Amino acid sequence: MLNARKLFATWKLRVSPRLCLTASAVILVVAVACALAASSATQNNDDQGFSCSNLPNFSALKNAIASATAAETSGLNNQMWATLVNRDGVVCAVAFSGVNRAAQWPGSRVISAQKANTANAFSLDASSNSNGSGQAGGLALSTANLYSAVQPGGSLYGLQHSNPVDTGVAYAGPSANYGTAADPMVGHKIGGVNVFGGGLGLYAHGHLLIGGVGVSGDTSCADHNIAWRVRNLLGLDHMAISASQPAVPGPASLFAGDSTHPDNIIFDITPNPNGGTGNSKSGFGHATCPNTSGSATLPAVEP
To answer: For the chain, does the N or the C end have fewer beta carbons within 10 angstroms?
Structure first.
């Protein structure tokens, strides 16, 4: 760093004395600049928790979606899309399980990103708890948990119309890069709210919420199961009780008695005699799908 008094002396020789700053003023300017630099460094450190560097890379996601899709026996047996977003909703990776981008429903690419954004946007960790408000252990909401709550008369009706997808991000080209490490969505905020199965929050060690995963391409029930396996394969399902931390709760653990699968899909909708989509006992139930199976045997979340 330049010596402030020498800086002052040099500057004084070049300008009118009437415009000269005192040496103490120059020192103050330098001190303020240093403080701003330190503040910027601190902010950068804080933002590391919202970085794609904390999430698995493209290759890891590609391998996970391929393995999880192969393991699924419910639904239509389709190939799948998968997307990871960070805590700010920035897309970090997009991959597909088939041999090329046309082997999966093309429309499911954006839906997978929308699901990842939703699960991240409406889940919490323990940092939400302060000054008498928030959730002590966080709160995990899968996109499957939102199905009943957003129906007419539901407690979250209208949620699906908020936070629209950024179409400029969703449909940017070139299409040849879709589902590759150079997918045009990567590095941008996708937005969007999806309210059926396939999106899950990502919890790192210490129950830290670092983003979301979204999967799409089959029935919404199969999407949920495959997303669950992807999260498990990536090692980002640290939600179970540990020696020092309470479990991360979700609708399945709070209302369906499933403490080992807190944000699992819940099938508790019964017919409504007045019509409509039916009544969910928990308020977070999901409709059944063609060839629905397997959600009760998914891997338990980790400590």
So the answer is: N
In this structure, of 17-31, 44-58, 286-300, the range with the lowest mean pLDDT score is: 17-31
Confidence of residue 258 (pLDDT cuts 50, 70, 90): very high
Single out the residue of 200, 238, 239, 240 nearest to residue 216, CA to CA. 200
99: which residues sit within 8 A by CB, 6+ positions away? none
Confidence of residue 19 (pLDDT cuts 50, 70, 90): very low
Instruction: Convert 38-76 to b/e letters by CB count within 10 Å (16 or more is b).
Output: eeeeeeeeeeeeebbebbbebebbbbbbbebbeebebbe
Query: Hey, how many other C-beta atoms are within 10 angstroms of the C-beta on 176?
Result: 10
Dihedral sign (CA 276, 278, 283, 285): negative
CB within 8 Å of 62: residues ≥ 6 apart: 95
**Cα–Cα–Cα angle for 198, 296, 233, rounded to 5 degrees:** 55
- The predicted pLDDT at position 277 comes to 84
Q: What is the pLDDT of residues 273-285, one digit of tens each?
A: 877 889 999 999 9
Give me the mean pLDDT over the 44-54 stretch.
64
Crossing angle for the helix pair 58-71 and 220-233, to the nearest 10 degrees? 130
The stretch 48-72 carries a mean pLDDT of: 92
How large is the greatest C-alpha to C-alpha distance in the chain, in angstroms? 90
Question: Rounded to an integer, what distance in angstroms lies between the CA atom of residue 167 and that of residue 159?
Answer: 19
Query: For the residues 97-115, what does the mean pLDDT come to?
Result: 98
Facing residues of 96 across strands? 81
Q: Where are the domains of the chain?
A: 4-46, 51-297
pTM: 0.84
Instruction: Tell me which residue of 140, 45, 50, 125 sits closest to 87, measured CA to CA.
Output: 50
